[in-house]
Amino acid sequence: MGRDLSFLLPEIVVAVTAMLMIVAEMGRAARLVLAIGLAGLAVATLLTLPVLHAGTTVFSGTYRIDTISGWAKLILLPGTAAALLMARAEIAGRAREGSLYALVVLVTLGALMLSGAGDVMVVVLGVVLTGLGSFALVAFLRDDAGTEAAMKYLVFGAVTGAVMIYGLSFWFGGSGSTLLSDLGRLRGQPLVLVTGLAGLIVGLGYKAAFVPFHFWAPDAYQGAPVSIAAYLSVITKTAAFFALAQALRDLPREAGWPFALAVISAATMTWGYLAALVQTNLVRLLAYSSVAQSGYLLMGVVALGASPAAVPGIVVFAAAYVAMNLGAFAVVMVVGRELRDLDGLGRTHPVLAIALVVFLLSLTGIPPLFGFVGKLYLFTAAINAGFLWLAVIGILNSVLSLAVYLRLVVPMGREPAGALAAMSAPFLLRGVIAAALMATLGLGILAALLPG
Amino acid sequence: MPLLTIATFLPVLAGLVLMVLRDRSARVAHGVSIAATGATFLLTLAIWARGIAPGGFAQVEQITWIPAIGAAYRLGVDGLSLPLVLMTALLFLLCAIYSARIKEQAATYVVLMLMLETASLGTFLALDGLLFYVFFEVSLVGMYFMIAGWGHEERQRAALMFFLYTLLGSLPLLLAIIGFYLGTGTFDMRAWIGAPPLSGLAAMLALIAMLFTFAVKTPAFPLHTWLPAAHVQAPTAGSVILAGVMLKFGTYGLIRFAYQMTPEALAQAGQVVLAFGVVSAIYGAFAALAQNDLKKMIAYTSVNHMGYVVIGVAVAALAADPRIKVIALDGATLQMISHGLVTAALFFLVGMLQDRAHSREMADFGGLLGRVPWLGWAFILSAFASLGLPGLAHFPAEFQIFLATLDTRPWGVIALVGIVVTAGLYLRAIATVFLGEAQDRWAKMPDLDLRERLVVGPLLALTVLVGVAPGWLIGMIHATMTGLVR
């Protein structure tokens, strides 16, 4: 017991932090709530480092302390801290400001559980914990758009969650165990395997927003505060992929599920970018772009168990995605929600413009940026697993994605519109953008630090 | 001293320094630009002085980068890359001198140019597949912003088309590189060259992917359509770098990757590649003939000239006799250098003409030779070089290519039609623009000033030198090509 708890220190710290934040919020001390949150996240991140290479499980195999969960903490905790700062810049002074911070940290706790899941029950727990908090976050603004978005999100989440639990019960029936490591026993029971997997894909696919479970994403992101849209688009999404990776790497590669997921992957990236191509609202555009990015992450999931590059690919791309997507959203928070708000940005705010260009090129996968390293691993994994056609589709979509992202770059060179010149980035957002920029630029070159 | 690394990164470092300088006026920016490119050129001369090793790479510099997947920072030089590196450094220096007249956002322009130089040198010097790809792609980004920021009327469209087209072109190369990696477990290009990792269908697929990439870049018919748009809209220095340096990425890759890493597949597909080369050469010449815009005309002659390089590589793959292979590869490599020198001069001259007249239409001019003799004679000399006149740079290259073609696949010499057509179109251009009746409206056109002569002079001198005495250059290329043919 004591041994198990020592490995769980980061999670415990996050949980305690969330409690303390709620207590502080009772005193309506929003700044204190934020400070506790940031400090807790920082401590939890540092506590992760000693157990990064532990490679063990705790509580009789139900929770994993391995490469995925370790790196998930290193990615999700700083990402959450950045999202908190972005939220502060957006909603400072509003009523219930502190509850939003507390909810964000609680949702992140759920995301950590998803990433470390060694048991289907932990997966379910993680899905519920992230889901409940997220609905409230989306509805935070209490206006019509926010309420509608949260309602859609909630109904969609309730249905997909139920389907997931139903499907997972088949795995329990087939393997006689709720442990993910026992999924190997499903070998030779293709029907049970596929039914359970279908449930899991519905539940986690909703969370990760891949086609055809993505419909809620653009609406929810648009209705929510931009910082919450940014948070949901990176933290809960990548956590869902970590959970998929935990579950599927023990699943026998039979009954054609890799192929089915490959088809979903291809559809997701294609649909996401095609839809993004016609958006004029920047939040919706980034929402569809993040749907498409899910397709790339799925390439890594497809190769699980067949290529040694699959798990590193998911981890590295997730890290890159968190940095570059948060950065892009942060720039949108500064500039405005519409595409035309970018007119002339390159002339009035060259540094901000360069930052956005770097984030967008990294999302496209242009070397030597961080996003390229992630895509390199994912393409390698897909080809290694025998899915050359998927890599080819991924490449064609990269060109499509460039067309999407250049739509943001082109207006920046135009003559500036009137109001832009006076605009200046809030201090907190500047910090977030700078940090995301350093990660996007630097970690591509310092890729040796990442898991192989 | 790691000269290769210093030469590669000196330009971009100078660019970064410029970005943080307090005074970023045009004067300072161009001063930094000329100093940095000049120093880089001197460094490449020092690399040349250190020499190359026959049958392998010399002056290798290596640092681990992503050890988990066997990618490292590896640079090295041989007789294929060294001439291209020298030419690249020279062209960037001349571009820096020529561009000193640009006043609009000069600092940003200079930073982009310096970034492009680093990317170009890195592409030729990289010995690691991943690193090569990184430099290869970074050059696209630099060129996109160059065209979009400082181009002519339709620049946004042309820049967009250029970026999308060439990104689509370069991504298949990434697949091929991943294929080589999965076959060997390393990104070391020397390992891929030493023992070609793929065979059979995998090798053919990798070759097709690479041919697509390099055909877009070279550009070869029918994947050349981005080139005229990009060239016409690009600023003069952009055109010079695009034609002089970046097109060579395609033909360099053709030899370095396709020829060296999938030799058997290329031999099997040699006839097809040869056919594409021949069609490109002839098509490029005829398309150039149809142009009235001088810049577009020169852009299309690039398709023609690079077609000969493709022919050379294809013949080298097809030939049975190692001596013929070496002749073909020598010719192909020399053709890259000749094209770089001659086309750069032509683009500079057309740019200078446009600076004066704000027009590139041939019909707008006439009898300019009397008004601007320096510009006129420089253009005539470059045009004669471009059409392959003996004694000028293209002749020794094209002669060797056709010699090898005649010996291996005699039907390939129908590409000679291209030379005839090119001769016709250049003579027509000279006649319309520089001869004939002088027009009054150009009576005040000034001739080339000192800065402009300084830009064109070295190129013309080298054009003649390579034409008359190519031995120093061919010797360098030949030493490597003999070792490269197995």
TrEMBL record, chain A:
Q: Per the UniProt record, which residue ranges are transmembrane?
A: 6-25, 32-56, 68-87, 99-117, 123-141, 153-172, 192-216, 228-249, 255-278, 285-307, 313-336, 348-370, 376-406, 427-450
E.C. number(s) listed in UniProt: 7.1.1.-
- Catalytic activity of the protein: a quinone + NADH + 5 H(+)(in) = a quinol + NAD(+) + 4 H(+)(out)
Q: Which sequence ranges form a coiled-coil region, renumbered to this chain?
A: none
Q: Where in the cell is it found?
A: Cell membrane; Endomembrane system; Membrane
Cite the InterPro entries for this sequence: NADH-Q_OxRdtase_suN/2, ND/Mrp_TM
Using the record's annotation, list all stretches that form the NADH:quinone oxidoreductase/Mrp antiporter transmembrane domain.
117-401
What's the domain of life for this entry?
Bacteria
Q: Which UniProt keywords apply?
A: Cell membrane, Membrane, NAD, Quinone, Translocase, Transmembrane, Transmembrane helix, Transport, Ubiquinone
Its membrane topology: Multi-pass membrane protein
Q: What exactly does this protein do?
A: NDH-1 shuttles electrons from NADH, via FMN and iron-sulfur (Fe-S) centers, to quinones in the respiratory chain. The immediate electron acceptor for the enzyme in this species is believed to be ubiquinone. Couples the redox reaction to proton translocation (for every two electrons transferred, four hydrogen ions are translocated across the cytoplasmic membrane), and thus conserves the redox energy in a proton gradient.
The similarity annotation says:
Belongs to the complex I subunit 2 family.
This chain belongs to the protein called NADH-quinone oxidoreductase subunit N
Automatic annotation (TrEMBL), chain B:
What keywords sit in the KW lines?
Membrane, Transmembrane, Transmembrane helix
GO-annotated cellular components: endomembrane system; membrane
Which Gene Ontology MF annotations are present?
NADH dehydrogenase (ubiquinone) activity; NADH dehydrogenase activity; ubiquinone binding
According to its UniProt entry, one GO biological process term is: ATP synthesis coupled electron transport
Q: Name one Pfam family in it.
A: Proton_antipo_M
Spell out the subcellular localization from the entry.
Endomembrane system; Membrane
Q: Which residues form the NADH:quinone oxidoreductase/Mrp antiporter transmembrane domain?
A: 128-417
Which residue windows are transmembrane per the record? 6-21, 28-49, 80-99, 106-124, 130-150, 162-183, 195-216, 237-259, 265-286, 298-320, 332-353, 374-393, 413-435, 455-477
Chief location of this protein? membrane
Its record classes its membrane topology as: Multi-pass membrane protein
The Swiss-Prot or TrEMBL record describes its family as follows:
Belongs to the complex I subunit 4 family.
Q: Which PANTHER family match?
A: NADH-UBIQUINONE OXIDOREDUCTASE CHAIN 4
* Function statement: NDH-1 shuttles electrons from NADH, via FMN and iron-sulfur (Fe-S) centers, to quinones in the respiratory chain. The immediate electron acceptor for the enzyme in this species is believed to be ubiquinone. Couples the redox reaction to proton translocation (for every two electrons transferred, four hydrogen ions are translocated across the cytoplasmic membrane), and thus conserves the redox energy in a proton gradient.
What this protein is called in its record is: NADH dehydrogenase subunit M
